[in-house]
């Protein structure tokens, strides 16, 4: 601006053509977006400060839990009273639960911190598997060129699915990820050839706290995907491996080879 201030604008340009396809005029419409941009930057700064506060607080709590665990161990060694031993056991169980909740806050704090971006599915799967010991399990990712608009943490979604297959799949030898396109959008299918998920567990699969590890993996995965309107469900048959389906609505996926979004 003339006074040296920086302002942000957004312009849309439209061309008008005659019957022969020649341009006869242009129309340009601009609007000032400075206030919206300043509000966005202020929100990002506030989120960074809250994240820092969360880090410091979580670190201090974990340190105090370590001290508490040490004193519980010392107390347990000083008595053989069965009743007191049972109290110590329950106290240690409470400490473990607190650690699990703290681990969850460490994972959840990053959700929504970065802006969504276009990301290629094959690269996401490759990056997710790179940090895991996959052994002899073959991992195939189809749909080259398919990109989804999602939170950058989507890689954690696939890392969690792959890790679950490796840990709890029961003899998994292959994992496949591929897209299925329809009029309703694209479904990204995740499958393995393991034992699948029992019917009794399907209803609680995405509940917070349900699971064999921290209990937050699939709950967190669904939260990450929901940021841009993606959904996650499990449709496999017990004994025939797992089948997770990530539904991506129109406008939130594109095939780079086609040069346009559907």
Describe this structure as you would to a colleague.
There is one protein chain. The protein is α+β, with helices and mostly antiparallel strands and 262 residues long. It has two domains: 109 residues, no CATH class; 142 residues, Histidine kinase-like ATPase, C-terminal domain (Heat Shock Protein 90). 42% of the residues lie in helices and 24% in strands. It has six helices and ten strands, in the order ββααβαββαββααβββ. A hairpin with a 5-residue loop joins strand 1 and strand 2. The longest helix has 44 residues. The chain is flat.
What share of the residues does DSSP label as strand, in percent?
Answer: 15-25%
CATH class of the largest domain: Alpha Beta
Radius of gyration: 25 Å
- Percent helix: 40-55%
Enumerate how many helices there are, as a single number: 6
Structural class per helix/strand content? alpha+beta
| CATH fold category name of the largest domain | Heat Shock Protein 90
Distance between the termini: 39 Å
Helix-strand pattern: EEHHEHEEHEEHHEEE
Largest sheet: 5 strands, mixed
Mean pLDDT: 85
Q: Can you name the CATH architecture of the largest domain?
A: 2-Layer Sandwich
Task: Using the alpha-carbon principal axes, give the shape.
Answer: flat
- Biggest sheet strand order reads 4-6-7-9-8
Total strand segments: 10
**CATH level-four homologous superfamily name of the largest domain:** Histidine kinase-like ATPase, C-terminal domain
Count of discrete domains: 2
């Amino acid at each position: 601006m003339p006074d040296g201030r920086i302002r942000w604008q957004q312009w849309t340009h439209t061309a008008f053509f005659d019957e022969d396809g020649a341009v006869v005029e242009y129309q340009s419409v601009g609007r000032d977006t400075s206030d919206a941009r300043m509000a966005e930057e202020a929100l990002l700064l506030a989120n960074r400060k809250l994240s820092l506060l969360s880090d410091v607080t979580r670190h201090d709590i974990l340190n105090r839990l370590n001290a508490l665990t040490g004193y519980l161990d010392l107390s347990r060694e000083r008595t053989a009273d069965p009743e007191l031993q049972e109290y110590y056991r329950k106290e240690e169980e409470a400490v473990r639960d607190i650690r699990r909740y703290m681990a969850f806050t460490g994972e959840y704090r990053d959700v929504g911190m970065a802006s969504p971006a276009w990301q290629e599915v094959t690269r996401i799967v490759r990056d997710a598997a790179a940090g895991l010991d996959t052994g002899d399990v073959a991992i195939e990712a189809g749909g080259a060129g398919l990109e989804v608009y999602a939170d950058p943490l989507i890689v954690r979604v696939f890392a969690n699915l792959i890790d679950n297959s490796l840990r709890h799949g029961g003899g998994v030898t292959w994992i496949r990820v591929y897209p299925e396109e329809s009029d309703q959008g694209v479904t990204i299918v995740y499958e393995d050839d393991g034992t699948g998920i029992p019917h009794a567990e399907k209803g609680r699969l995405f509940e917070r706290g349900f699971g064999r590890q921290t209990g937050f993996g699939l709950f967190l995965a669904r939260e990450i995907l929901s940021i841009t309107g993606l959904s996650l469900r499990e449709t496999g048959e017990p004994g025939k491996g797992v089948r997770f389906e990530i539904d991506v609505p129109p406008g939130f996926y594109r095939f780079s080879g086609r040069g346009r979004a559907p």
